[in-house]
Write a structure and sequence with these properties.
Elements (H helix, E strand, L loop, with lengths): L1 E5 L5 H10 L5 E5 L11 H17 L4 E4 L2 H14 L4 E2 L5 H7 L4 E6 L1 H4 L2 H10 L4 E6 L1 H8 L6 H11 L7 E4 L8 H8 L4 E4 L1 H15 L8 E5 L3 H12 L5 E3 L6
Parallel strand pairs: 1-2, 1-3, 2-9, 3-4, 5-6, 5-7, 7-8, 9-10
The structure holds D-glutamic acid (DGL).
Length: 257
């Protein structure tokens, strides 16, 4: 079984990519909705929440933990790899493929303030984007819109336009937050057809598949179970919007240690 977590519903976009790659793996998804958004929280708090989520997934039987959250990866990946007894897959904004794709030498990264302020992000930009202009666009309001299931309404469209106005000449946009792939149609409509949009979900799924093979993860029956630390009734409609169909969702109480 593969355990996957995010602050909320965003990690479902990674879950979709993992499901496509590994149709027979059993997946267990945990949305830490009671603490969503992670983006503006102190690093120490994100670390404790990420550890609580990772430990819970392992306790349920996860043989791989996927951190389907750029913010939690930036804050806590080393900690999780140290503390959890299973392989941990993390993710980071696709700066490297963006630099390979840009023709104008201008790249926009849409992410949380936590990701953009992290040492890992700075190191990523220094390593791969030294000769490229990188617009770091913190887009906190878009996380809330996706959590509300508002992936295609006028207010979300206006927010996207407002954020992208700060990077008018970028020809590549990196979705550096797992909440943003459901907004790809809005982002693309706003940025124009010549702009390339990069989502790292498929790359994370490919890495997860490599690890699954390496550890000999058995073929299972392809189930997907979802849990939230928030209120399932409140969250279920937005989950259906993001996933594209209704999924059963149960509550889990996961106190910070
Ligand atoms: N989905 C998350 C990410 O990839 C975090 C969103 C949030 O909780 O602020 O960064």
């Amino acid at each position: 079984m593969i355990g996957i977590f995010d602050s909320g519903l965003g990690g479902l976009t990674v879950t979709r990519a993992i499901r496509d790659r590994l149709p027979h793996a059993d997946l267990l998804y945990l949305a830490d909705s009671a603490y969503c958004p992670y983006g503006p929280r102190p690093v120490a708090e994100i670390r404790s929440r990420a550890l609580a989520c990772g430990r819970w997934l392992v306790d349920q039987g996860a043989q791989i933990v996927v951190v389907a959250c750029n913010t939690a990866t930036a804050a806590a990946i080393e900690l999780l790899r140290r503390e959890l007894p299973v392989p941990v897959v993390g993710m980071e904004p696709g700066v490297k493929p963006a630099v390979a794709a840009t023709r104008r030498g201008k790249v926009a990264v849409m992410a949380t303030s936590g990701t953009l302020a992290s040492d890992r992000f700075r190191a990523l930009v220094n390593a791969y984007a030294a000769n490229v202009e990188v617009y770091a666009l913190a887009c906190p309001d878009l996380v809330a819109q996706v959590e509300a299931g508002a992936i295609n309404d006028d207010h979300t469209r206006a927010l996207v336009a407002n954020y992208l106005a700060a990077a008018p000449d970028a020809d590549v946009i990196v979705l550096g937050c797992t909440h943003f792939p459901p907004l790809t149609p809005l982002i693309s409509a706003c940025a124009g057809p010549e702009v390339t949009i990069i989502d790292t979900g498929p790359a994370v799924a490919a890495q997860t598949a490599r690890i699954a093979k390496h550890i000999g993860l058995p073929e299972e029956s392809g189930t997907l179970r979802c849990y939230t630390t928030g209120d399932p009734q409140t969250i279920a409609p937005a989950l259906a919007n993001v996933w594209g169909e209704t999924l059963p969702l149960a509550a889990v109480d996961l106190p910070t240690e």
